[in-house]
Structures are given as C-alpha cells and as structure tokens.
Amino acid sequence: MGYMHVLSLFCMQIILLLVVVAETTAKVPAIIVFGDSSVDAGNNNAISTLLKSNFKPYGRDFEGGLPTGRFCNGRIPPDFISEAFGLKPAIPAYLDPLYSISDFATGVCFASAGTGYDNATSNVLNVIPLWKELEYYKDYQNKLRAYVGDRKANEIFSEALYLMSLGTNDFLENYYTIPTRRSQFTVRQYEDFLVGLARNFITELYHLGGRKISLSGVPPMGCLPLERTTNIMGHHDCLQEYNDVAMEFNGKLECLASQLKRELPGLRLLYTRTAYDTFDQIIRTPAAYGFQVTRRACCATGTFEMSYLCNEHSITCRDANKYVFWDSFHPTEKTNQIISQKLIPILLAEFQ
Length: 352
Description:
The chain has helices at 3-25, 77-84, 101-104, 119-124, 130-148, 150-159, 168-175, 179-184, 187-207, 225-230, 240-263, 274-284, 333-351, and strands spanning 31-35, 107-109, 161-165, 212-216, 268-272. It is an alpha/beta fold and 352 residues long. It has one domain (28-288, 337-351): 3-Layer(aba) Sandwich (Rossmann fold). It has a 5-stranded parallel β-sheet, sandwiched between helices. The longest helix is centred in the last third of the chain and has 24 residues, at 240-263. The radius of gyration is 21 Å and the shape is globular. It starts with a helix and ends with a helix. Mean pLDDT is 91; it is low at 3-12 and 14-24. InterPro entries: GDSL, GDSL_lipolytic_enzyme, SGNH_hydro_sf, SGNH_plant_lipase-like.
C-alpha cells in the first residue's frame, strides 16, 4: 500500500473521529433560529427589501471583518449560544448561497430582520413573514432527511434547540407607526392578538417535531436610541409607555409558555426574560458593564441610523465596546455577548 494511500486513510479516520467527538461533546445536535433582526444571520440579503446590513461598517468586528447581514458590528446571540452548546461559533442564514445542507445540519437561521408575529408587520418593509420562515423550515426538513436519512433527521428535529426572538417590530414598526392596527385593537388587545399568533406558531413547530424551544421576550423598547431621539418632550429619556407595554407583553408570553407545556405532551418550552432584564440593567448601570454611552449608537450620530442610513460613509465610533447600541435599533456585539452570557446557563440547565 502506497504512502499517500495510507496517509489518505489516516486523514479520513481523523475526520471521522472529529465528527464523532463533535457529536458527543455538543449538548444538542443543532440550533434552529426563528425571528427578527435580533437573530437574523443574513436572510434579508437574499430578498428584495430596504432592510439590509450586508455592507460596511456592519460586521467590522466579525471574523474577517465581513458584513454578513447581521445587524451588528459582530456576532449575535444565536452565535454565542451555538458555541456554548459545543457547536459552530456562527449560525448560517438559510438563504445564504455560500452554505448547503451539510452546514445547516448543525445549525440554521430562518430569521428575517423587520418581521414580527403579525403578517402586517413583515409587509411594512417587505421582509419574510413568520409563516414563511416556517415554510423554509419544512423545506429544510426535507433536505435534511435526504441528507442524513429519516431516522437521524427526526432525531435532530426532536433534540435540536429552537430559538425564537421577535415581537419588537410588531409594536415599533407596525402598531405605533402605522394606524391600521391601532384602529382595530387597543394595545392590550394587540398584545393578545400577537400571543395568539405565537401560540399557533409554536403549536405548528411542535407538530413538526420541535420539542426544545426557547422563547425570548422583547427588550425595553422605549430605551432604543431611535425612540429616545423622538422623545423630545421627555428630554430624550427612555419612553416608559413602550417599556410598560414590553413588560406586559412579556408577561403574557410567559403565561403562554406555561399553558402550552400543559397542553402539548413532551414539549420543553422555556420563556426567558433575559432580553428585557439584562438590557434594562445595562441601560440603568452601564458603567458596571464597561459601557460609556447608552443614549446614542456607535454608527453615525446614533439617532435614526439603521440599515442603509448606517453605511461606510457614516462617522462610526472607534470602540464599539463602549457603546450599548451599534445602530439606532440594534445592540453591539458586546451587549449581545453579555445578554447571551446571562442566558446560556439557563438554556444549558434546561436543554442539554
């Protein structure tokens, strides 16, 4: 047997061993992501919408300095969670042509920036509605079955950790901006409407095999730079009305999680308050986390800038780690990391 042939066999054995080790050290076989820009890894790059971030300075602190379509200077929470669970350090977007089913087998993102529970929210900026994210997931299921076989695929579907993070756009981009829903619902009724849509989505995901689901609430949305900029009468402080709605809506999501766990056998659904609570702590005591600026974002003047208004011609802060927000709507990588570090032990305790 020739030297090169022996070397080739040895290399193959090493690769197989690494695959086995990866499978045994990972806490779950895959991380599967649904939601909005808080968790979108770049699906909006592939659709016709103004809401994109696949250009500089987005991604300047991501590996290789690449703007991937994440609304951040670096990584977002699912990336940190994936790494903590023993999987890859960045979860790819399902619509990214650079990746295939072999990449998606251990983690995939279906999220779309600008979307919400309400279909009317996704229509505002022509992004992927939540029902379409689920259709992409069904397509993924078919591809994964063809790739690893039915038995292995079904095991991945039931053992994977599903992350859901959305709801902010339903209020800020839709309810409080466009009059249609306000003419149909009081804000309390709209919260209930959204919770009903969340119930339907989780139930359908359960019937498709999902069992381990982490449901995130919305952050203190009245403290986003965009909202503080427009709160002129309130001296650019956090808009308490919006934060109150966020807390009320989150409470209803928490109740929903308890109800669904009783109704659906074998469902492990965890509602997590981390997005609100940790964000709130950071904004109240920024210095304790090493931050210097909370009112403005890093990109440009940090008031209205987001997507195309935050671009390579913008004046961007030198050190994003001093800023809570990257653009007027989205946190910096450091903020994402702090929130993830609070969330990860809770997820590991519940789902590994």
